[in-house]
Amino acid sequence: MNTPALHRKAFLLLLVLVTLAFGWILWPFYGAVFWGAILALLFAPLNRRILRRWPGRRNTAALATLIICLVIVILPLALVATSLITEASLVYQRIKSGEWNVGVYARQIFDALPGWFVQLLDRFGMGNFQALQERLTSVAGDVSQYAATQAVAIGSNTLNFVVAFGVMLYLLFFLVRDGAMLSAMVRRAIPLDEAHKRNLIGKFATVVRATVKGNVVVAITQGVLGGIAFWVLGIQGALLWGALMAFLSLLPAVGAALVWGPVAVYYLATGALVQGFGLIAYGVFVIGLVDNVLRPILVGKDTKMPDWVVLISTLGGMAIFGINGFVIGPAIAALFIATWDIFASTDEAATEPEVQPGRTSPRR
Q: Over the stretch 5-20, which tens digit does the pLDDT of each residue have?
């Protein structure tokens, strides 16, 4: 019974159990490990460039890469996050005190609706404005309370955040320094054909880089443009609405319009036609143009995935993994497509009729 086959099965079982146990240990710092690996992948080309200038000084090059990452990515995000926490708390206080009453705004829109549209709403059972007003007020209160609660939770969990942030930076340094060696080890350990491994790993790295860089650039651009528009129109909380547009812009085609669209409708319904049509034109031809021009160039061109696959995988990834899903979803979709392409090409090659020596291949 003590055979080599049994030894291999026992070892494979041990390998699976140890790997699951290690993943269980890392799970509390899943976000820190995930973004440490993503940032290491994004800044690996910069680290290689620095190493060419300082050959043999791997620690110095990794430290320089880490400092650059801190300056251009992490510190600006920390400053924006701090401002957003303050802004979200102010919005919650205004809604709670009644200074901002969503029901009043909804009443103004409802009163401005033409009679035929009100009759149409009645036919579909949506003409009861009182219930709609209460529902909108309740939703606005819940959303603002959730945002304020999250802000307070972030403040109360400062120690956890600092620990996770430290883990991410520590891990980022070593992943940047030893990333090439770790990648080679993983590649050797994967029990696949070398060409298949090269294809899958290359596809994964390309999709992650394109998704993060492309979506982040599009999100920042749309958020800044939307925030400027709201600031010019004198809308309170322009920074918060701009950040919300940046977050929603992770959803291709429809994201930022979920914020500026209702505001434009409110302006039109209340008779502010210049502001309403101006915001619609700005949203379609400026904010929307960013999505229609930059996203295909930065995301679709490199990932080589259809727009509908990117949209569905992004939505599904964010529904399961939260904010991290906008990277995980498209990466899984890309690996799914690449794996099936490899399977189809391998199966086609296996069924291709062999050509005997001295004979020509059969005509099709």
A: 787 888 888 888 998 9
